[in-house]
Design brief:
796 residues, Rossmann fold, Leucine-rich repeat, LRR (right-handed beta-alpha superhelix), six-stranded mixed beta sheet, nucleotide-binding, cytoplasm, NLRP_HD2, ATP-binding
Length: 796
C-alpha cells in the first residue's frame, strides 16, 4: 500500500517526464483500485495528478492549434499570432437593445468616440471578477473578435494568463450549426470537437474550472429557444444541441463553468440579458493601435510610416482602419504599391483600395498556382462574376456564411468551389467543419459588398442581367441607362432598412468612374458601354442630401460624393473653419445642403468630440438644431447664453433619450427655457436610455412647476445616471425642492450633488440657498432646516 500513498508516489518526477503515458496509465489503474477500496481521500489526490497530466496534454494541443494563423499572411505562409497580434480596445458596453444599423455606421461612430473615460478591459481579465459567469462581447464583423478568442486561448495554453482555469473549450457557432440535428450529451458533444480528449470526463470534478467559448453568435442557425426548451442538468444525458446550449447559458448544465460568447451587434439580443453577467464591446483599433499594427506587420519601418501618413490623409480609409481586417487589406495593397516605385495613383477611396486588393490577390494567386505573370482573362471573369453573383444575391439577407445550396443557386459547382477559394483564397474561404460538411464565406462583409457592386455594375453594362430576379435589389437592372441605374441605386440605399446598402452604394458609384474601370479592364474586359455624365449623378445626390435631414442618411451620401471624387461642397464649408476647427456663422447664411455639409465636416474631423461649444459657431437656436447630430456625438455640450427656447429643449430631449447618444454633460444656463422647456427636457430624462450625468439649468426662468417636473422625471426612471443637477438662480418653491431633496436621500438614486441658489437680485425676499452633496460631511437637512449656505455662481 505504500506505493499508493500520497507520501510515496508511484513514479519520481524524472520518470514522469520520461514516460508520461506510463504515469497516466498507472494513475488510472491506481484510482480504479482505490475506488474499489473506498479510499476516497487518496483517490481524489491522485485524480488531481491525473487531471494535471490531462491539462498538460490538452494545453499542448491548443498551443499547436492557435499559435499560427493563415488568414492575414500575404505570402501564403502562416504567421505567428504572438508576433502580429495587436491588443484590441475592449470596453464595457451599455446593455442596450438590438442595433441593426449597417456596421460601417458603428465604425464611423467609433471613430468619433473618445475612449479616454472608458475603462478598457484586457481579454485576459474577462473573468477576473469571480462572480461573473457569462460574458457577452459585441463587435462588428472583422473587428477582431475571433483573433481575440484565439489569443485568449493561446495565452492560457502558454501559461501566460488565466492559470486558474483548468480547461478552455472553443465551440464556434459555425461548427455547432452542423450538428443541429444531432441528439447527444454535453460530454459527447465535446468529444465531437475534441476527439480523444480523455480530460472531458473530469469537467465535473471539484476544483476543475472550465471556460466554454462560443464564437460567432451571429452565425448561429439554432433556434436558442430559452423559453420552451426542457431543463437539463446532467452532462451525460442526451438532448438536442439547442437544448444543450440553452441549458449551458442558463446555468443548468455545468453551473460552475464560465462562458464567453462573441457576436456582431445585431444578434446580441438572441440571449436574454438576465443570463449575461457582463456585456463588453470590441471597439477596434484606436489611432495608436492602428499605427502599432502597421509598424508590426510591415518590416520596412520607413515604408510603414509612409502608409500611416497616407491613410491619415483619407478620412474614409482611416475610419475603416478601426477594423483589423481592413488594416490588413490596406497593408497588402500599399506595401506593394509604395515599394514598387510605380506611377499608379495611390488609393484614397474605398473603391480604389478594394479594386487594387482584388487585382493583387488574383495576380498573386495566378503566379503562385499557374506560374503565369498575367491571369487568364476568361477564367478570371468567370470566377469573379460567379462570386459576385453569390455576393449580390446574399447581400440583402445579410448572410456572411453560405451553404452548398447557396453556391449551386449561383451556378457554382460545389466540387469546383476550391477553384474559387484557390484563385483568390484571401477573398473567398472554403472551410471544413468537423469533417461533417463545408461552409463558405468571404473574409469580410465589405469584400462581399464590393464584389456585389462589381457584379451589378458589370452585369448591367454587359446586359448580362440575372434571369431570375431573387431580390428587390435586382430591380436595378430594369433601368435603361447608366445614369438611371445609379440613381435607382441611390434610391434603393436610402430606402434600405438601417443603411444595409450604404457600402454597396459607395462601391457602385466608385466603380462608375472611368479611372477605376481602367484599373479593372486588364482583368475584366467590358463588352458594353458605361458612358454617363458624373455631374448628373452628383447633382442627384446633392438633391437627396437636401431632402434628407437625417444625418444617418446624408452622411453616407457625402461619402458617396467622395467616391465620385467630388469635394467642392466640403471644401467650401472647410474654408469657413479657422485652424481651431471653429467658425463664426452669424454673418453667413447657409443653405440646407451647406448645413448638412458642416455636420459632415465636423463629424469627420480629426479632433475628438469631447466638448461641443455652440458659442464657437453661432449663438442661435437654428445653429443648435442644425448641429444636433454633432451634439449627440459629443461628451459635453456647452449651450449657455445662446438665446435658446423650448424648441431647443424638444430637440435636446430627443438627443439625450437616444441609446446611441454620447452626451454626458449638458449646460443650458442663461437661456429662457421656462417651465415649458424644462418639461420637454424632463421627458428625455424619463427615458431609460438617457445617460446624462450632469445637467446645468442656471438662470433659465424655471419656477416650482419645472422643479417638480424634473423630480418626477428622475423618480420615474430607475435607470437614471444623473449625478449632478444645478438649478441656481431660478424662482424655486418648497414643493419642488422637497421632492428633489427627498429623491437625493434615496440610496437607489444616483443624484449626488444638487445646487439650488436664488437669484442674487432676489435675496431681499425670503429666499434660501441650498447646495447638497450626498458625499459631504454635512448631513442633508429637511426643508424646514434649510438655511442660506453660500452665494456663488457655480457655472462657467
Amino acid at each position: 500500500m505504500n506505493l499508493l500513498s500520497s507520501h510515496c508516489p508511484a513514479c519520481s518526477e524524472e520518470e514522469v517526464e520520461d514516460d508520461p503515458i506510463a504515469k497516466e496509465a498507472l494513475l488510472k489503474v491506481t484510482i480504479h483500485v482505490l475506488e474499489k477500496m473506498k479510499e476516497t481521500d487518496l483517490m481524489k489526490t491522485l485524480e488531481k495528478d491525473l487531471l494535471s497530466i490531462y491539462q498538460k496534454k490538452y494545453k499542448s494541443r491548443m498551443k499547436d492549434k492557435y499559435k499560427r494563423i493563415c488568414e492575414t499572411s500575404q505570402h501564403g505562409t502562416p504567421s505567428l499570432l504572438n508576433e502580429i497580434y495587436t491588443e484590441l480596445n475592449i470596453t464595457k458596453a451599455w446593455t442596450e437593445g438590438i442595433n441593426t444599423e449597417h456596421e460601417v455606421r458603428h465604425l464611423e461612430a467609433a471613430s468619433r468616440r473618445s475612449t479616454k473615460k472608458d475603462k478598457c478591459i484586457q481579454s485576459d481579465d474577462l473573468f477576473r471578477d469571480k462572480s461573473i459567469r457569462t460574458v457577452l462581447t459585441k463587435g462588428v464583423a472583422g473587428i477582431g473578435k475571433t483573433f481575440s478568442v484565439q489569443k485568449f486561448i493561446l495565452d492560457w495554453a502558454e501559461g501566460k494568463a488565466n492559470q486558474d482555469v483548468t480547461f478552455m473549450f472553443p465551440l464556434p457557432f459555425r461548427e455547432l450549426n452542423l450538428m443541429k440535428k444531432k441528439n447527444l450529451s454535453l460530454i459527447n458533444l465535446l468529444h465531437q470537437f475534441f476527439p480523444g480528449a480523455n480530460e472531458l470526463q473530469s469537467i465535473n470534478c471539484d476544483g476543475c474550472k472550465v471556460v466554454l467559448i462560443f464564437d460567432g453568435l451571429d452565425e448561429c442557425r439554432l433556434p436558442l429557444n430559452f423559453e420552451n426548451n426542457e431543463s437539463l442538468c446532467d452532462a451525460t444525458e442526451s438532448a438536442s444541441v439547442d437544448v444543450l446550449l440553452t441549458n449551458l447559458i442558463k446555468g443548468n448544465l455545468l453551473p460552475s463553468a464560465h462562458l464567453w460568447i462573441t457576436t456582431r451587434p445585431g444578434a446580441a439580443n438572441q440571449i436574454p440579458l438576465r443570463f449575461v453577467g457582463q456585456v463588453t464591446e470590441v471597439q477596434g483599433f484606436t489611432d495608436a493601435q492602428k499605427e502599432e499594427y502597421f509598424m508590426k506587420s510591415i518590416s520596412d519601418q520607413s515604408l510603414a510610416k509612409k502608409i500611416i501618413k497616407h491613410i491619415k490623409s483619407s478620412k474614409s480609409l482611416y475610419i475603416m482602419c478601426h477594423l483589423p481586417v481592413f488594416c490588413w487589406i490596406t497593408a497588402t495593397v500599399l506595401e506593394r504599391m509604395l515599394s514598387e516605385a510605380e506611377s499608379e495613383e495611390i488609393p484614397k477611396t474605398l473603391t480604389q483600395m478594394f479594386t487594387h486588393f482584388l487585382i493583387f490577390q488574383i495576380k498573386h494567386k495566378d503566379q503562385k498556382y499557374h506560374q503565369r505573370c498575367e491571369p487568364d482573362p476568361q477564367q478570371t471573369r468567370e470566377s469573379i462574376m460567379a462570386l459576385g453573383k453569390l455576393a449580390f444575391q446574399q447581400l440583402e439577407k445579410g448572410n456572411l456564411i453560405f451553404s452548398k445550396k447557396d453556391l449551386m443557386e449561383c451556378g457554382i459547382n460545389v466540387r469546383e468551389a476550391t477553384v474559387y477559394s484557390g484563385v483568390c483564397t484571401q477573398i473567398f474561404r472554403e472551410e471544413f467543419e468537423l469533417q461533417l460538411g463545408k461552409v463558405f464565406s468571404f473574409i469580410h462583409l465589405s469584400v462581399q459588398e464590393f464584389l456585389a457592386a462589381l457584379y451589378a455594375f458589370l452585369a448591367f453594362i454587359n446586359r448580362n442581367q440575372p434571369e431570375h430576379q431573387t431580390t428587390d435589389l435586382s430591380d436595378l437592372f430594369n433601368n435603361s441607362s447608366m445614369s438611371d441605374f445609379l440613381r435607382s441605386a441611390v434610391d434603393k440605399a436610402l430606402e434600405s432598412e438601417n443603411g444595409q446598402l450604404d457600402l454597396f452604394l459607395r462601391f457602385l458609384l466608385g466603380l462608375s468612374l472611368e479611372s477605376n474601370q481602367t484599373l479593372l479592364r486588364s482583368l475584366l474586359p467590358q463588352t458594353g458601354s458605361s458612358a454617363h455624365r458624373i455631374e448628373e449623378t452628383v447633382e442627384y445626390i446633392k438633391g437627396k442630401i437636401r431632402e434628407n435631414p437625417s444625418p444617418e442618411m446624408f452622411i453616407n451620401l457625402f461619402h458617396c460624393l467622395n467616391e465620385l471624387n467630388y469635394h467642392s461642397l466640403v471644401k467650401e464649408i472647410q474654408s469657413y473653419l479657422n485652424p481651431g476647427g471653429y467658425t463664426c456663422l452669424r454673418q453667413i447664411k447657409l443653405s440646407s445642403i451647406q448645413w448638412s455639409a458642416l455636420v459632415f465636416v465636423l463629424l469627420n474631423s480629426t479632433q475628438e468630440h469631447e466638448e461641443f461649444d455652440l458659442r464657437s459657431y453661432s449663438r442661435s437656436e437654428e445653429c443648435l438644431l442644425r448641429l444636433l447630430p454633432v451634439v449627440k456625438e459629443s461628451r459635453k455640450a456647452v449651450l449657455c447664453g445662446c438665446n435658446l427656447s423650448e424648441e431647443s429643449c424638444k430637440g435636446l430631449s430627443t438627443v439625450i433619450s437616444s441609446k446611441c447618444s454620447k452626451l454626458r454633460e449638458l449646460n443650458l444656463s442663461e437661456n429662457n427655457l421656462w417651465d415649458k422647456g424644462v418639461k420637454l427636457l424632463a421627458e428625455g430624462l424619463k427615458n431609460e436610455e438617457c445617460k446624462l450625468e450632469k445637467l446645468w439649468l442656471v438662470q433659465c426662468g424655471i419656477s416650482d412647476v419645472g422643479f417638480v417636473a424634473l423630480a418626477l422625471a428622475l423618480e420615474s426612471n430607475p435607470m437614471s445616471k444623473l449625478q449632478e443637477l444645478n438649478l441656481n438662480c431660478n424662482e424655486h418653491g418648497n414643493k419642488g425642492i422637497k421632492m428633489l431633496s427627498d429623491l437625493q436621500k434615496d440610496p437607489n438614486c444616483t443624484l449626488e450633488t444638487l445646487h439650488i441658489e436664488p437669484d442674487p437680485y432676489e435675496l431681499n425676499k425670503t429666499s434660501h440657498s441650498y447646495n447638497f452633496n450626498r458625499n459631504s460631511t454635512n448631513p442633508v437637512m429637511d426643508v424646514a432646516e434649510f438655511v442660506i449656505l453660500q452665494k456663488r455662481n457655480s457655472y462657467k
